[in-house]
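#structure-requests
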Amino acid sequence: MGGAVSLALAAVFLAACTQQPAPDESPVPTAPTPSMSASATPTPTPVLLPEGSADDNLPYFTLVTQQVWGGGERMAGRAYIDALVSAGFDKSRMQVTKDQTAIGNAVDSIQFSVAWNEECLIGQAGAVFPEPVTVILPALQGGACLIGDTRPIDW
């Protein structure tokens, strides 16, 4: 009986390995695929919106920050301030931290800000970050944005 079982298993195995007849290749109707009638709307380039909110202007603040980061002065606070001024932000509403420590070493990161009504557009860039960070935070009491020792923007 063992030979009969082996023979039956071999027959099943061989039957499974033989080429099956090709399925009927007549075309099968398919549902029409919808075509895109309109192309994707490109994202507009952010711009300064003087009458807008901090939320409205964060994309533009971020764009300017990223442009400075991509240049050669990513750790120079003045570069961020100058770029923001060139972009139309109000220099008198800005703050920036120092680029160097008290003993002349480069800082790990710098912060810069623009006060916007009761809020602040704040950027932070540094060697410890893969890219700059921008956020909106409430203004401090008195209207300032950054805590601690900032440098005068006197240029």
